[in-house]
């Protein structure tokens, strides 16, 4: 019998990456993954981005997964290396972004006293299991390639998300039969059940005032075009969850806007009360948003969830509910829906337009009131940036007051025009997310909007931006506070504690690691500072350090709308 050809585990791992057409691996070197890095060094087809903290590797891999639809790859070492990546992996899980985390590990069978073992060799598996679709520790070299190939398929199937594959040190020293280097198993797309499709078509045939609600699943399954077609075929108003910003162009005549448990949308609730059928597509069952809908939904509702097969929680406010790939579901409905476009309700269009104009008026008046404030107000700083960026720019924001203001200033025209941290809400994700976006879209402007507290968590990866020549503009709204905490404590307790940051000159920090840094403290210098910063991004990443005041809090959308409505009413 002829001897079977054998190969090393690290070589098999890299060949699986090649089979999966992986373009970039994001990671940080460590002793337990050196054999994999050695193989990557001989594989110029795969780029390698060296982050300065493993969490940034996971954030970048998740961002890559969202922007491309293919799993991003993060490579981290055992023990603390993998543990550092937990928040970025949780971000990918909460956001339904496909990614594969490859980790080194202690030797199979290691227990008490093992280097990085923390007395249990399987502790990484226990740590990652709740925040991944699948977590596996490879115990046999022969399973190495198969496990990694499975990981890519699982990450992309159904509701996408992160998968973690751990390769113990002794497994990386092993060999396997070369024929075990399998291609990817089939990616599974959850087909819509006929009951949901039939119910939707039947209710639409009877309805006169349908309304649509979109969840993040529309973005996850790349179903924006199908949603737009259905909205326009039905001439039905559509609203969406905050974490689904970008499912519809915000300026569309039928776009009612977003909602979440903290920022409700009265016009959406008003139109729901008037509707005789609602289709909810791409929202997770059991979410806070679905609870809000349950309190207000019309008696005729179909709920199509973004959930894993078998993990769907029954929805008690819908005639029919179930989980499915949103793009497949909407495509099936469109195929069978009459081609004739319905007429839009003029009253609905007027109310949507009036609310949009009121928000614009209220926002502009607020910004005008604070345009000369010194230290500066967040809003006018972002308004100036928005006025100078190119059409098609990508804006990446995080969590906190800076993100709330960024949402108010920058419109989400598409899936990648405005990218926020997502449901997990991790600070420090903007810079690595922006670097990844620029690497994927080098010809587009990428603007990172961050706060000083958040930037301090990712300051080390300014060096990564310089090394990768990711020429992003990092605009830091520098108020020497954890500003949202300041505002929340003030409202709740009348005083603050633990919310202050020492003054930091981020322009000098940027210059110290090879970036350009521009600092602006006065409103009269703002326009020129933004212009210079954008010009400098043609050659280098740039930090625009805008010295701001923390006294202004976050924007209240409904207050802005009410002020705008008052102005519209007074003008006739």
* Tally of DSSP helical segments: 24
Strand arrangement across the biggest beta sheet: 3-2-4-5-7-6
Radius of gyration: 25 Å
Segments where pLDDT lies below 50 for 5+ residues?
none
Strand content: 15-25%
Terminal CA distance reads: 92 Å
**Whole-number count of domains:** 3
| CATH fold-level label of the largest domain | Rossmann fold
CATH homologous superfamily caption of the largest domain: Thiamin diphosphate (ThDP)-binding fold, Pyr/PP domains
Strand runs, count: 20
Tell me about the biggest sheet?
A: 6 strands, parallel
Describe the structure.
Helix content is 41%, strand content 17%. By secondary structure, it is an alpha/beta fold. It folds into 3 domains: 175 residues, Rossmann fold (3-Layer(aba) Sandwich); 151 residues, Rossmann fold, CATH 3.40.50.1220; 181 residues, Rossmann fold (3-Layer(aba) Sandwich), CATH 3.40.50.970. The chain has a 6-stranded parallel β-sheet, with helices on both faces. The chain has a 6-stranded parallel β-sheet with strand order 11-10-9-12-13-14, with helices on both faces. Strands 16-15-17-18-20-19 form a 6-stranded parallel β-sheet, sandwiched between helices. α13 links the parallel β12 and β13. α1 packs across α2 and α9 packs across α14. The longest helix has 24 residues. The chain is globular, with a radius of gyration of 25 Å. The chain starts with 5 loop residues before the first strand and ends with a helix.
